[in-house]
Amino acid sequence: MTQPDGQNTTLDNLLSENRTFAPSSEFAAQANATAELYQQAEQDREGFWATQAARLHWDTEWNQVLDWSDAPFAKWFVGGKLNVAYNCVDRHVEAGNGDRVAIYWEGEPGDSRAITYNELQREVCKAANALSELGVGTGDRVAIYLPMLPEAVFSMLACARLGALHSVVFGGFSAEALRSRINDAEAKVVITCDGQYRRGKPMALKANVDEAVTATPSVEHVLVVQRTEQEVGWNSGHDKWWHDVVDRQSDQHTPEAFDSEHPLYILYTSGTTGKPKGILHTSGGYLTQAAYTHQAVFDLKPDSDVYWCTADIGWVTGHTYIVYGPLANGASQVIYEGTPNTPDEGRHWAIVQKYGVSLYYTAPTTIRTFMKWGSDIPAQYDLSSLRLLGTVGEPINPEAWMWYREHIGNGTAPIVDTWWQTETGAIMISPLPGVTAAKPGSAQQPLPGISAKVVDEEGNQVGNGQGGLLVLDKPWPAMLRGIWGDDQRFKETYWSKFAEQGFYFAGDGAKYDESGDIWLLGRVDDVMNVSGHRISTTEVESALVAHSTVAEAAVVGASDATTGQGIVAFVILRGGTGSEDSGDSATNALRDHVAHEIGPIAKPRQIMVVSELPKTRSGKIMRRLLRDVAENREVGDVSTLADSSVMDQISAGMKSGS
Ligand code: ATP
Ligand code: MG
């Protein structure tokens, strides 16, 4: 991380935001969450979590809420036993809700399938029986390399049912990325499909698996779902069609109860800041926090809401807020296979209209893309069913928040800006809908039961109006239990910086505003140091995005002989690269705009107009690569970049001096 060279270890507080949006009295009156939750959790944290754990069916009751004696290795709900898949599926069938639709699946070409909880139970049982036939048992690892198909959900729950760990690898990753994840987890089975629909065309997927498994000694079987019916290579030694093996299985399967701390899955982080880490999650605490947060933060009413989280199942958001949280709560949800601009830029809104989606959860990058496409597109659809909106993945710029509220949320839907990480397993900091008066751009307060603080380098909490480092100072149920196979890296990465205090170091910068609300300010590694001022990338980016010509912005600090670092901004213009806004006088006007909005110290040294920004496959901007360009270095590891040619274009533009 960037070491502060001056005495000033806190972050400068540049941006101020005074708009607040109190919940309507109608929303508040029906909200799942209440202000009392904060008090209850404050008075008795463990008692609060014990109450939340009662949302689940436990075959054996636990006898201790938390065992932190071997910190940082936590045990939650000690002695308890449960089956996670039973909790997500069978329980709802037994309660008489088997006819409720669990999944409205929408294929990119327009095919669709509604899967009830009854059917989900049969599919998960068959998949579990198939995996056992293939030799998968408790504790084994299964790699799932699938796009957004119902079989991805069946496979994850089948693993959970058997006590096997899944390791879902995003379907956009290369053979090499897949291979390294298979080998790290030593997966016995890989589940994949022939191909996937992307932007209206079938694209091969199995070919990547064929290439990956040439050097994966642990893999015994490859189970292949048929989706596009395209030609595939076939290795009769280990390849099997899903429909040959799964379809003939019994749809009955008796779930076994596993220990609350039984491992549930491994998931690799996005790799925004470096080499991905294999994050390990376990069962009882994880499912408790997934169910609680999904119900409280999204205000879920399982018998009337239609929920849609647009994340890919290959990211933690897909794990906790497509599979485990919603299904534990018996929700009806949309799962969409494809891209937001197929067949046209209104696809998401057509889906909202078709299914009457009421709760919609997406990422700031998607919202900024919708803004760039224009508000006339959502205006063509009936979005009146939407009653709550969420965002996750990056700080949301206040202007993007306002656009989201106005053009998607009809000016009334509460927005929940949810901060969390693969490591935290579930939402940690977020407004509570119906309780919190929302502020555009701020995640505001830790949820009831969660404790987070903004501290300086010494671990002392900073005051209101000041910035520093975000830490989680108390263990939480869904916390990671380690990095797969690497306890040392686990301790070093998260627990060594504030070892004395026992804080979890999140790696993100944050600040308190004057009323004590938390604002996330981007990665600590990205903080800039300009003439002794520590400036967050997020605040400068938000100032740029607030300008009417700018659609997206990424800001980095590049070494500078006089100021230590100088601010270099990369912007995507609403009008595109060739537009009249891209000339020198226009970029100078943008530099002045930043100086005017947040202060002269934040005035960018240079602004480059680009057509794309380097993003991870989960849509986060990779500033470390832009810093390489700004400092004329060779560009670093691009293996988790969505489109690696973006960096070539940007480097070329930089050299030609634009
Ligand atoms: P890696 O750890 O490998 O670099 P990553 O941190 O991008 O990858 P994730 O776990 O997917 O992997 O992302 C978590 C990070 O996303 C957080 O640490 C934070 O920087 C950012 N983030 C998520 N939600 C929010 C939010 N609501 N506001 C601000 N930042 C957010
Ligand atoms: Mg991270």
UniProtKB/TrEMBL annotation:
Residues annotated to bind Mg(2+): V545, H547, V550
Residues annotated as binding CoA: R198, R199, G200, K201, T317, N341, S531
Keywords noted in UniProt: Acetylation, ATP-binding, Ligase, Magnesium, Metal-binding, Nucleotide-binding
Function: Catalyzes the conversion of acetate into acetyl-CoA (AcCoA), an essential intermediate at the junction of anabolic and catabolic pathways. AcsA undergoes a two-step reaction. In the first half reaction, AcsA combines acetate with ATP to form acetyl-adenylate (AcAMP) intermediate. In the second half reaction, it can then transfer the acetyl group from AcAMP to the sulfhydryl group of CoA, forming the product AcCoA.
Post-translational modification: Acetylated. Deacetylation by the SIR2-homolog deacetylase activates the enzyme.
CDD domains, sorted: ACS
A GO CC term attached to the entry: cytosol
HAMAP family: Ac_CoA_synth (MF_01123)
Domain Acetyl-coenzyme A synthetase N-terminal: 35-88
Obligatory cofactor(s): Mg(2+)
Gene: acsA
Residue sites binding ATP per the record: G393, E394, P395, D417, T418, W419, W420, Q421, T422, D508, R523, R534
Domain AMP-binding enzyme C-terminal positions: 539-620
Pfam families tied to this protein: ACAS_N, AMP-binding, AMP-binding_C
Species of the source: Halosaccharopolyspora lacisalsi
GO molecular function, one term: AMP binding
GO terms for biological process, alphabetical: acetyl-CoA biosynthetic process from acetate
Protein's name in the database: Acetyl-coenzyme A synthetase
N6-acetyllysine carried by residues: K620
Protein family membership: Belongs to the ATP-dependent AMP-binding enzyme family.
